[in-house]
Amino acid sequence: MICAIFFGMTVSEVRKRYLDFFAKRGHAIIPSAPIVPENDPTTLFTSSGMQPLVPYLLGQEHPEGKRLANSQLSFRAGDIEEVGDNRHTTFFEMLGNWSLGDYFKKEQLPWIYEFLTEELKLPKDRLWVTCFVGDESLGLPKDTESEEIWKKIGMPQERILFYDATKNWWSRSGTPDKMPAGEPGGPDSEIFYEFTSVQHDPAFGKECHPNCDCGRFMEIGNSVFMEYIKNASGSFGKLPKRNVDFGGGLERLTAATRNNSDVFLIDAFDAARTVLEKRSGKQYQVQGGTLNSGVQGSTLYSATRSFRIILDHMRAAVFIIASGVRPSNTEQGYVLRRLIRRSIREADKLGIKETVLAEVAESFGAAYRNHYPFIYKSAGRIREELEKEEQQFRKTLAQGMRELEKMGNSIDAFMLFTTYGFPVELTAEIAAERGQKVDMETVQKRIDEHQAKSRMGAAQKFAGGLADHAEQTVRYHTAHHLLLKALQMVLGPEVHQRGSNITSERLRIDFSYGQKMTPEQKAEVERIVNQKIAEGLPVVRTVMKKEEAEELGAEHEFGASYPEQVSVYSVGPLENAFSIEFCGGPHVANTAELGSVREPDGSDRRATFKILKEEASSAGVRRIKAVLE
């Protein structure tokens, strides 16, 4: 027993022991649902073990029976800001067991206690439990049944605490008063592990208790007893079939076996942590309860916090990319991009100036190879996406940080976004670290107004092949710029525009090239254009002298004459733009706007750049017709 506590267990050992334990008690071991839900437009990610099983908890028959167990891959985007202390992660595995109208409290509580104390060898005197105190106004009784079961098991009365519905009640809509008629719910009983080596931090209250946030206590499991249904009158009745839903954080349970309150010191993070230590020249260190609780202060804390953010975010990114998601400015891709960009900034704070994220990610592929082989098999794609995203954003980060420093106490998040492509939420985070605040609502309003003006058209006349200044025509005009640059990258710098025609239905470009493009070349051009759309690059207009624009290598229409002062549009900040062209406009404000198409009814649908046709136009000139489909 002492050895198990001292040396602890691995993630794989805890997972296997849990699944074996419940398999022996008649539970079918079901696979984890995908972390990106299939055919579910209501949510971006699977956030708990219960989520994929809600239909069965509400009465539908499960093909595997009434007793189920698994380890569910989970991701909670709402916890991104919380990462940095000793226990919060965005990605985690949730160990779960369910009774669908079968066993209830008298089986569940003794089983989970047996698993913790006999299988994981956790000391009994470190375990605390909480129960529902009841709500007399709603006719919901105090959960004395769970209390009596816990006492019968051997839990001392002083380590059984009662809390209200904000802590010890579950329903999809929250507390009982917020539940609509017909929704099921019930009390729950949480289990906490006490790390006695962590001293209570008075900043979190005079007295320490299981739900204190100082880091001394960590929730490691929760048994939900779904037994009530809300009536139309607002009262509560009993369900004909009662269910049990248990969820236990695999990482936290593993940390408890090691008697170490820092989940980032479990084996799953070891290799990745070593990579960061070697590349940064800094050591991951823990400094008592204050550091564990997440209260900032010392340089040591700052470095350890950066380690934790990168470790969490890269592990999450590995599983998300392996599930088929790519960085973008919409939906899951946006969350993934934010994880990557936050990691890059934290690596920068650690003094790591070269690309590092792909190397960190590779460590997780090895750590999860046996239980989740699809991660290891996706190693090439994961590396490619992370390297590409990191190389691109490091340029934006460096430029944005230089401009931020110049601003001092007057941070202009709008200018940083529209001019340099610097993410608004990152500006807000940096401002918060400095004790400043960014009015996100005002900034977003200015961005919306800026984009609306851009879509309305340019102030000066433009006759470069546009049929009109309709919203979709303007989108195609910006896509035209991306296409020309992509053609030069794939076919060679000798490619230049020889004519264009852009309508709200499609774009057409004539370009200098002497032979038919291969399918591989067309596919690569499409990939580059779609990548730049996904990167959400700002489209920036700059007025400058014609000679200066020519020195920058700005593309211009063959045979056209230009005044001394010209308008130049760059995709990306001018200093490191993807493309630069002489152009009068109009354009979208950001390439991300090309990723959706406006329907006649005003709704948006997702769009992908696609080459419809590539053919000869005249001697030495080819023609492409393309759409955002």
Description:
The protein is α+β, with helices and mostly antiparallel strands and 629 residues long. The protein folds into three domains: 2-257, Bira Bifunctional Protein, Domain 2 (BirA Bifunctional Protein, domain 2); 266-398, no CATH class; 471-628, Threonyl-trna Synthetase, Chain A, domain 2 (Threonyl-tRNA Synthetase, Chain A, domain 2), CATH 3.30.980. It has 20 helices and 18 strands. The chain has helices spanning 2-7, 11-23, 54-57, 105-119, 144-153, 165-168, 250-257, 270-280, 288-293, 299-322, 331-349, 357-367, 373-377, 379-407, 413-420, 424-433, 440-456, 471-491, 519-534, 546-551, and strands at 28-29, 67-75, 91-100, 127-132, 160-163, 169-171, 184-194, 217-230, 236-249, 497-502, 507-512, 539-545, 565-571, 579-582, 596-598, 604-606, 609-618, 621-628. Strands 1, 2, 3, 4, 5, 6, 7, 8 and 9 form a nine-stranded mixed beta sheet that branches. A four-stranded antiparallel beta sheet has the order 10-11-18-17, covered by helices on one side. Strand 13 (565-571) and strand 14 (579-582) form a beta hairpin. Helix 4 runs parallel beside helix 5 (144-153), helix 8 packs antiparallel against helix 12 and helix 11 (331-349) packs across helix 14 (379-407). The longest helix is centred in the middle third of the chain and has 29 residues, at 379-407. It is elongated, with a radius of gyration of 29 Å. The N and C termini lie far apart (62 Å).
